[in-house]
Amino acid sequence: MATGGPRRRPARSGRRPDVPAKGAKAPRRDDRSGAARSDRAARPRADERPDDRTPPGPFRLGAVPGATPGKWIDIWKQRMPHNPLELIPLEVVDQRAALREGLVDAAIVRLPIERDDLSVIPLYDETPVAVCSVESALTAADELTLADLAGELVIVPRDDVLGAVVPDAVAPAFARLATTADAIATAATGTGVVLMPMSLARLHHRKDVDFRPVVDGPLSSVALAWPTDATTPLVETFIGIVRGRTANSSR
Fold first, then answer.
1. Which pTM value belongs to this model?
2. 117 — alpha (psi -120 to 50), left (phi > 0) or beta?
3. Which residues on adjacent β-strands are paired with residue 76?
4. I need a labelling partner for 241 at 20 to 30 A (CA). Which of 59, 97, 172, 248 fits?
């Protein structure tokens, strides 16, 4: 049966099938799979050194009585949410051993401290005060000198950190008391006066005692210390916080 005429072939475009039309985006020959792209994203940048990555785990900070690291701890929590900070109370007599034996990564200590194998950054000096009963005549003055304490019974507990020498002081007739808290409790009865850094007087505050600055008394220096051979990235981070570096500051 006749079809009514010859079939027409479609017009040829004049280009190869594997060549994209003008204006079309050619496929990438090096197109990678999603897994390959993820692997590339996981690689460190050229400007990111492996040593700069902070390891996981808690940072153990020791602190002697009277130390006030609260503001630094708050900054740590903001900058290091995945690295908890453990605050470990230390007695001054134990501060050197705690660092040497690795019980803490760093510590806020009272000077002097044996510095062999330790790195130490002085932080601040504390004013000495005389703690006495609220009924003592010493409270009539706004501040005192060591000479004002001549003739007073001066109590020096075993955990004394000041080492103040008061000329013409009266030595207690009773056995040396063990702690600063014991000495303050005794002074509260009207017996004697105790010299200590202001922070300890505030730490052991009682309603029946008061204190006055001793303007020529020895200062108590507070410092940050850590084992030199254990200067970890966590320690360096805390040092930066103490020194007031911002989160973007270089070490």
1. 0.75
2. left
3. none
4. 97
Query: In terms of DSSP bridges, do strands 59-63 and 85-89 run parallel, antiparallel, or are they unpaired?
Result: parallel
pLDDT along the chain (251 residues), means of 10: 50 52 53 48 40 70 97 96 96 97 98 96 97 98 98 98 96 97 98 98 97 98 98 97 82 53
SS (H, E, C) the chain: CCCCCCCCCCCCCCCCCCCCCCCCCCCCCCCCCHHHHHHHHHCCCCCCCHHHCCCCCCEEEEECCCCCCHHHHHHHHHHCCCCCEEEEECCHHHHHHHHHCCCCCEEEEECCCCCCCEEEEEEEEECEEEEEECCCHHHHCCCECHHHHCCCEEECCCCCCCCCCCCCCECCCCCCCCCHHHHHHHHHCCCCEEEEEHHHHHHCCCCCEEEEEECCCCCEEEEEEEEHHHCCHHHHHHHHHHCCCCCCCCC
Looking only at Cα atoms, what is the longest distance across the chain?
141
Total count of residues recorded for the chain: 251
d(CA 180, CA 23): 87
Q: What is the Cα 90 distance to its own chain's centre? A: 14
For residue 102, how far is the Cα from the chain centroid? 16
Q: Which amino acid is at 164?
A: A
In whole angstroms, what separates CA 145 from the centre of its chain? 34
